[in-house]
Amino acid sequence: MATPTIASFNTQRARAYLFRLPLFTRACIVAIVAFWVLSIPSSMWDLKQWGALIPNEMGIATLYRINTFPFIHQNVFHMVMNLLAVTPLMDRFESEHGTLISLAMFFGPLTTIPAIVYVIIERFVLGSNTGVMGASIWVFLLLGVEAIRTYKANPYFVVSTYSIPTWTSPLAVVLVTYALVPSSSMLGHLCGLGVGYVFGLGYLKFLAPPEKVLRWAETKLNLLGRLPHFVSVDQKTYGRFGVLPTNGGAGGGASVAMGMVGSSQRLGP
Description:
Blueprint: H1 6-19, H2 23-39, H3 47-51, H4 65-68, H5 76-97, H6 99-106, H7 109-125, H8 136-153, E1 156-159, E2 162-165, H9 169-180, H10 186-200, H11 211-221, H12 223-226, H13 253-258
Antiparallel strand pairs: 1-2
């Protein structure tokens, strides 16, 4: 009998992990890959120019950009790195909050707020027109949420004789990412991180749909029975605004994402 190799074991674990991903996380992965495939024949349609968040291109007719830019990537490496980083974090978020709340928040305030802040600063404060794209804004937003919750449970970590607030960890990742990938948008990452901090502190709770409405919608449409991998309001793992796990199972997602952060690529100068 053949002895299982480490490679085959890791492949099996990866496959099992992908098969258990909740619905919204799966949909985001499929959408990101689909947008990348559509961007390949650029001679037919410049998808990157169409969907990127470009400050000077923003208007009533192009407001869709504040939702499309996280799905569009510069190249396959950019896409893969962002998928590796955002998948475990999105998985944890959806498992905690449920599928409907994840849909409402990521197609609502958790994407539109950092996008609007970025456009305002880039266009009216810096007077520039640097376009950004990529799911790394979600990566840093979710890292910000996790950092605040970690800070509440464990405020400091010690390096030599210095006590450093745990909420500053994503800031270090922003700096390292910019140092390794100078073409990445530090401002875009900071906007995502800032909104993540605000959400982690609980100041955006009022933007979340009420659970009573979500339960009614789930029951009326029988979403749990019709949609595989759907996470119900009453099926959440950790409580709607509770503390995310820090180890074991999906809890390792934050550490994985810390080491695999992609970047929002600049289109402008």
